[in-house]
Every structure is written in C-alpha cells, then in structure tokens.
Design goal:
Blueprint: H1 27-32, H2 36-58, H3 62-96, E1 102-106, E2 114-122, E3 125-134, E4 137-139, E5 152-157, E6 160-165, E7 178-182, E8 187-195, H4 200-220, E9 225-234, H5 252-259, E10 266-271, E11 279-282, E12 287-291, H6 299-307, H7 337-345, H8 350-353
Parallel strand pairs: 1-7, 8-9, 8-10, 10-12
Antiparallel strand pairs: 1-4, 2-3, 2-5, 5-6, 11-12
The structure holds zinc ion.
Length: 383
C-alpha cells in the first residue's frame, strides 16, 4: 500500500501533528493546549543544545570539555521538562481521545516530530507502512482487529531509540483504541579510534569533528543511535604505524595485533589513505579505515553506515545523491527512514552484533520490500 503522509508542520497541539483529518485543529484548540508552554520550553532548550553541538564541531582542546558539560546540563533539564510534559499529556489525553485510535509516545525525549510506520487492518484490507508524524500523540484513524493481518508499529525520533512494537493486540473494530509506546534513550555505539596518521592533535580534532557530524546525521535523521567515542589512541609513534599508513582490509590482522583492537566496539583506524580511498569498512568485522588525508566530514559516518549493514545507494531509485550511503558522494546529508529501520533491526548491523542493542532483529537486505521490511527509499521529510 502507498504511504499515507500529510505534512502539517507547525501545528503544535499536544503533538497531534497528523491524522486523517488534520483540519480539525482550529486556532482555538492551539490556544487552549495545556501542555504548549512545556513543549515550547523543551524546543528552546533543544535549540540551545543544537547551537552548542554546532560549536562543538569546530571546537578544540579544553573548549570541547566545557561545551560537552554545558550540553550535558541542558540535556538533563530537557529530560526533567520531558517528565513534566509526559504527565501533562497523560492528564489531558481524554481531551484528544474519542473518534480515532491513538498512539501515544511515552518517555519520548525531545519535541521533534516522530516518524511512525503503522501496519494494520483497515476496511480495505491489510495495510503496510502507513506513515504518521507527530510529537507525542498520533491519531491514526480506525485500525481494525487483526483478523489475519499482522499489525506492527515502528517509531523513529531524533533523540530516542527506534522502537518496534510487534506483535500487538490492542486494535479492535472500535475507534477508541490506544497503543502506548514507551520510548528509550538512543542506542549507544562505542567507538575506539586508533590514529596512525599525524600530526596527532590535528587528526584528533578531525576525529572529533567526524564523530560530531556522524551524531548530527544519525540524530537529525532519527536513526536512534549515538556514536560514543571511548578513546582516541595516539598510535603515531608506534614503530609499526608507518608501514600501515596505506592499508586495506587485507591488513586488518596487522592493525589489530601491531596497533591495537578493542573487541565489541567499532574500531576506526585513521591512516593516510585507505588504499587510496577515503575510507573502507571491512565486512564481517567491526573495523573501519579512514584515510585521514583524503576523507571528508562524512566519511566516518558513511563507513559506520556500512557497519550498520547498509550498502551503497547509487542503484536505488528514489534515494538522493546526497544520501549518506552514496559512494564517493559529497555533502552527504540524509538517511532514509528505510535505512534507519535496517540500521536497527538487521542482525548483521554492528549494534546487534556487538550487543549495543538487544531488541528484536530481522533481516532486511537493502533491496527487500515486504510486510517485514519497508522499502529502503521510504522516507519522511521533514523529520
Ligand atoms: Zn562505501
């Protein structure tokens, strides 16, 4: 079935951003929204975090520590406001319930528009990957009792782990059913970096900027993951470094034994070139090579995308040239919802292989389109 998506951007009423009948939101209902002030407060705190994260990308030295600590404090405040908002939404839910089934996002961090994919039975039959967007409460029309269809709900939001609810048995033929989806913190993906290419402080700044860019992309694109640099090791003085400066995946055993390797984490080696390429991911491992002298700000995120099970997107219709997984691309700035789904659920994604994520897995190759696997090109803009 075709995706149903209506963009009602800018409507800020208890997060009822999209429903089959968005026209019922009058200015009066906006003014009366009892939770609006809290939503506004969270949005303004988030804007400040984004500003600081932008600064962080160009920061160096002690500045990084200061900025990180300010971001942390702001995030704690956002979390507190979020709890207040959750209570507010719960207290006032009866005001919005009634004529449509409803999906409530509880414990959601942030006031961004979550993207929600819904499979369920409609009066026209089983429907697949209907798309809804909303902040906290989504009206989804009348989803009928299962009767041979396999209902499922997948939720993507900027600062939350992707949630997949399947199977589920809440839908009846009534139009007053409600599904509560409990959101959780993003999946943390530990990254250890080995810097072979010098000068170290310069490449270290590059690593920090690459990690910040990766998190900006995975964050804003609602991938639900956060790359956490555990250590950035200075291997420039290692006597074996020079002979490994232009390595490919054929050299991974040498890199592991002569430079270093931490199991159960992504290991990224910043070398001179990755056999004249900007970067490489070594399949079946958690190893990434970055050619520090030729890579761009998205090379690390791109290789991590491979580690998350994604392939190149050049051959796939409907995906822009600026997708993160465009090979050799420049200004790569987007990740589709179909890719975010695979990053999380594919059993070969490093977050499942390394046990960073423990929820249900499945196998959705890039070209799969089925009840279980949304199209890779399925996307929702703006996020
Ligand atoms: Zn690639």
């Amino acid at each position: 079935m075709k995706s149903v998506y209506r963009n009602v951007l800018g409507v800020l009423s208890l997060g009822i951003i999209l429903s089959f009948s968005p026209g019922n939101l009058s200015p009066t209902s906006l003014a009366q929204d009892p939770c609006q002030k809290i939503i506004d407060a969270i949005a303004s705190l988030e804007e400040r975090v984004l500003g600081l994260e932008d600064e962080l990308r160009d920061a160096s030295g002690v500045e990084i520590t200061v900025l990180r600590s300010r971001i942390k404090t702001l995030k704690q405040r956002i979390k507190k406001e979020q709890e207040v908002l959750d209570r507010c939404i719960k207290d006032h839910s009866p005001m919005v319930a009634g004529s449509e089934d409803e999906i409530r996002l509880l414990n959601k961090i942030g006031s961004d528009q979550a993207t929600v994919l819904v499979d369920g039975r409609r009066d026209t039959g089983c429907s697949n990957d209907e798309v809804f967007s909303g902040r906290f409460t989504l009206l989804v029309g009348n989803i009928l009792s299962n009767q041979g269809c396999i209902p499922e709900v997948a939720v993507f939001a900027q600062n939350n782990a992707m949630q997949i609810v399947s199977p589920l048995n809440v839908w009846t033929n009534q139009n007053t059913d409600r599904l509560d989806v409990r959101m959780a913190d993003r999946v943390r993906v530990p990254l250890v970096v080995w810097v072979l290419q010098g000068p170290f402080t310069m490449v270290q700044d590059q690593v920090n900027a690459d990690v910040a860019r990766a998190n900006q992309l995975f964050g804003t694109m609602q991938a639900g993951v956060q790359v956490v640099p555990v250590t950035i090791n200075n291997a420039t003085a290692n006597p074996n470094a020079e002979s490994l400066l232009n390595s490919g995946c054929i050299s991974i055993d040498s890199l592991k034994t002569k430079i270093g390797f931490t199991p159960k984490q992504i290991n990224a080696y910043y070398i001179e070139t990755a056999l004249f390429q900007r970067g490489g991911f070594c399949p079946g491992t958690s190893i990434i090579l970055i050619g520090a002298t030729v890579s761009d700000n998205e090379s690390l995120a791109h290789e991590i995308g491979h580690a998350f099970s994604l392939g190149h997107t050049a051959e796939i219709p409907g995906i822009p040239q600026t997708n993160l997984m465009a090979s050799g691309g420049i200004n790569r700035d987007s990740i589709t919802t179909g890719q975010c789904f695979r990053i999380n659920v594919n059993s070969t994604s490093v977050i499942n292989v390394n046990g960073n994520r423990t929820a249900t897995t499945r196998d959705c190759p890039d070209d799969a389109i089925s009840n279980l696997c949304p199209s890779l090109a399925l996307d929702v803009q703006p996020k």
